[in-house]
Amino acid sequence: MDVPGGSVTFMFYSKANSNRKGFQCLTEPLPVAVRDLDGSKLLHSQAFHFFGTAECAEQGCVVLTTGTEPVWLPAFYAKDASKVIDPTGGGNGFLGAFVVGYQETGSVVEAAKYGHVGASFMIEQIGCPERTGEGEDERWNGCSVSGRLADYQAMLSSHWD
To answer: Which residues form the Carbohydrate kinase PfkB domain (predicted)?
Structure first.
């Protein structure tokens, strides 16, 4: 993605607990500081946008960016929501939608909102959501993604009023 003076690079870091799974068992955790990147030098720090999101499952997430206050965003579904069937894949859905949201808006906070909406589709069933239609007619689990994003924005407005 092009930005004035450079490009944006995403590095998602997950510090695994003692029950590391999958490929994480075969690797060391990714470095979190630029100085840890095997001798690499950060020559143009202005070209990088540093941020972090701490996902807290049904509690939502907190978005941290350089030079701004943290922003807390609630999850799309409440913990006891009847539509939540299986949380497996919710984090992956969050990350995928986060990247799309960041590409579309350029805002880390807006991207996290996309992330919550993406996660909401992943946890409504066992397995992947059902996708039908194309373009404006595209639906996930029978629901418009843009419609659900609008619902989430409205929920946030009433949450903070």
So the answer is: 58-128
